Amino acid sequence: MPKINRLYALMLVVVAGFIGYVLYKNFVYDAGANAFLQHKTGRAVHLPVWLKIMNIHIGVAILAMLCGALNFLPKLHATHRKLHRANGYMYVTSVMLVSLTSGYMAPYSTGGKAVSIAFNLLNIVWPAMTVIAIMRIRKKRVQAHREWMVRSYAYCFTNMLIHLVTCMLHNGAGVAYVTSYTISVYSSLILLPLAAEAVNRQWRVMRR
Fold first, then answer.
1. Contacts 24+ apart (CB under 8 A), 178-182
2. Contact of 162 with 184, CB cutoff 8 Å
3. CB atoms < 10 A from the CB of 119, how many?
């Protein structure tokens, strides 16, 4: 289906661009996360440990984004089922590791307890949606599995949306950084599920 293929290609461009940005920013431009840490207002971090956990967090988040993108490849499930299944379990493992490392970093979140609560909520919702997707495919409910995977995969873009909204509010509108960051985190909890439902509705329409 040409329209689905075009949307998938657009998603790949966004994914590739964001991964390139994350790798450059976190491992080349600011490997010590100095720019980000200067805005910290909560608990003081134990820097060596925090940096290691953050780097693991970034690595598994990128892996989740790549695995999810691959499994949405049109016709992959029909032509390479073993690859689709193995890649799917790698995605699930990556999501769990992202949530685990995020759980460690949540108490140190910029914005303090309010933002920490939001991240911990995300650390519950994202794995839950992923597990539901697995349960659906085990019952051979392919369409339901795909829709729950879309809901799960939407959260791979959490960091991108947080940085985008923070930049718009802080650099564009002059809102204080901590306030901008707090708004962006809560915005992601609302906007990403809405985006996932929009994609699912569009998918249903295009497949009629």
1. 178/39, 178/41, 178/110, 178/111, 181/39, 181/110, 181/111, 181/115, 182/111, 182/114, 182/115
2. yes
3. 20
DSSP state of 66: H
Q: Between 193 and 79, name the one with better pLDDT.
A: 193
What tens digit of pLDDT does each residue of 122-132 get?
A: 999 999 999 99
Which two three-digit tokens encode residue 39?
């805005």
177 sits in which H/E element: helix 177-206
pLDDT at 151 over 80: yes
Return d(Cα 173, Cα 194) in angstroms, integer: 24
In angstroms, the CA 8 to CA 194 distance is 18
Cβ neighbors of 55 (< 8 A, separation 6 or more) are: 26, 27
